[in-house]
Write a structure and sequence with these properties.
With 374 residues, the chain is an alpha+beta fold. The chain is built from twelve helices and 14 strands. Helix 2 packs parallel to helix 11. The chain is elongated.
């Protein structure tokens, strides 16, 4: 069993334990509504574009242009590349790619104004030499499932080839994927807008600030476990949902972007503020770390979270909210690639030192930090 599968088993076991009756009732209600969310169509859209791009590479001039772009950049905007095409084969991709970008934005719950999201990149750095030498590459879509044993790639005749997801192939492979960094930036905007709309991310009153500033919890170092993902997978974009009770007694959610967490098994030293304690009523908060591998629907996530969290009321003492957040995650996400990373219960303002995640997939060291005003 892979580490990601073990993580999933541990999480599902954790969900069986309700923190309080109120939390459990809210979680059950949210799960029932979230289960109606349909699985993302992103992977299917990517696969269609991968096949069309592969067929277009039969044109040697266009193939050379794509090769130059892939060798000079870690990822290439597919729509922009097609718009710069000097041949008919490349330009013919423009309508399909533009429509695919629109459909992906919709599938991820993003506005159509988000713009181009599809990117193409070389599957592995070891392929550069053969690609430079003129080898005709295959084209594949990034898989949605981290546990996939095989992937499908297409040649310039449109024929499908089955590749081992764990062994890097000898032949160069282009991978069609979503620009998760751009998608996450837009997605966090969706979450914040939805949270504000329902009053679970209200601005903090200035009066709560300590003289000359405010106290925070700062992450000084953090590491995630090695999940042994397929070679074809790109970097995931990580973010954290910090939850607690706001000064008005309502559940509050703050989003924290962690764009530096590109690789598992690497210790990062961000010195990043995780919790702004002037936003919270109690001296405790929870943190749920998530990732966007390309298929996250932010609108569905925001709606599911607000539905679950608004059922929880302040009982005059702190109630951990991790279980409610996890139960609200659309059930379709657990059947493919879980976007859950790990969670930390009851972080306190005075916490200092190492804190291990509840699912055993990560740890971070934290410290109190006073943010001074100018």
């Amino acid at each position: 069993m892979s580490k990601k599968q073990l993580r999933r088993t541990a999480l599902l076991a954790a969900l069986l334990t309700a923190v309080t009756t109120a939390t459990a009732q809210g979680a059950v209600s949210a799960t029932a509504e979230a289960s109606t969310v349909r699985p993302s169509a992103v992977s299917g859209i990517e696969d269609d574009v991968a096949r069309s791009l592969a067929v277009s590479l039969a044109d040697t001039g266009w193939r050379s242009q794509v090769r130059s772009a892939a060798l000079s950049s870690a990822q290439v905007d597919v729509q922009a590349l097609a718009a710069r095409a000097a041949t008919r084969s490349g330009k013919a991709l423009i309508p399909e790619v533009r429509e695919a970008d629109r459909r992906i934005a919709a599938a991820k719950g993003l506005a159509s104004s988000t713009g181009s999201l599809l990117r193409v990149r070389l599957g592995d750095a070891s392929m550069r030499e053969d690609l430079t030498g003129g080898a005709v590459p295959l084209v594949a879509a990034a898989p949605a499932d981290d546990a996939a044993e095989t992937i499908t790639a297409y040649d310039s005749q449109g024929r499908a080839h089955t590749l081992d997801a764990r062994e890097v192939p000898q032949r160069p492979v282009y991978v069609v994927d979503v620009d998760v960094s751009k998608a996450l930036a837009a997605g966090l905007g969706v979450l914040r807008a939805e949270f504000a709309k329902h009053g679970v991310a209200t601005p903090r009153p200035q009066a709560r600030q300590a003289a000359g500033g405010w106290w925070s919890t700062r992450v000084t170092s953090v590491e995630l476990a090695d999940d042994e993902e397929p070679w074809v997978k790109g970097d995931a974009e990580v973010y954290t949902l910090v939850t607690g009770f706001g000064l008005d007694g309502k559940v509050r959610v703050d989003t924290v972007d962690m764009p530096y967490l590109n690789s598992d098994g690497v210790v990062y030293y961000p010195n990043q503020i995780l919790v702004n304690w002037s936003n919270y009523k109690y001296n405790l908060a929870d943190a749920v770390m998530m990732e966007d591998d390309g298929d996250t629907n932010y609108q569905a996530l925001a709606q599911a979270l607000t539905t679950a969290l608004l059922t929880i009321t302040d009982q005059g003492a702190y109630i951990p909210l991790v279980n409610a957040v996890l139960s609200a995650i659309p059930t379709s996400w657990w059947t493919d690639d879980p976007d859950y990373v790990d969670s930390w219960y009851t972080l306190a303002r005075n916490d200092s030192g190492r804190r291990n995640g509840a699912a055993g997939n990560g740890w971070m060291t934290v410290e109190p930090y006073f943010v001074e005003q100018f």
